[in-house]
Sequence to fold (121 residues):
Amino acid sequence: MVRELLVSVNGYEYVMICEQPNTCDRFNSASYSALIREQLAKLSSPYARETNFINPTMRILAGIMSDSLTNTSWTLDKQLIDYPIPKSEFSYRGLTPASAMLRIAQSVGGILDLSDTNLLN
Fold:
């Protein structure tokens, strides 16, 4: 069962995915644990499948990033300098949308920045 948690750290709020909750009850003691990942996990395994991509036409960087989000409910808020990428010059094989977005961002020295609490459904 997957749950979303609102976590506050030093005044910043983050929406996290809580996976694999576990409880351990012992005499006079109980403990709880879980795997917690950021919202980007929804675009990673096991929630999203791996795909292959090669840009079939000349595309701008934002277009390639948007293509990697096809069939997800996510959208791109591009805040970087864009440039054209010639036909067949960018490709990936066997990446989830999260991994693809990270590879694209890193290819131009960028990072992925999630909008924290704006990701609440």
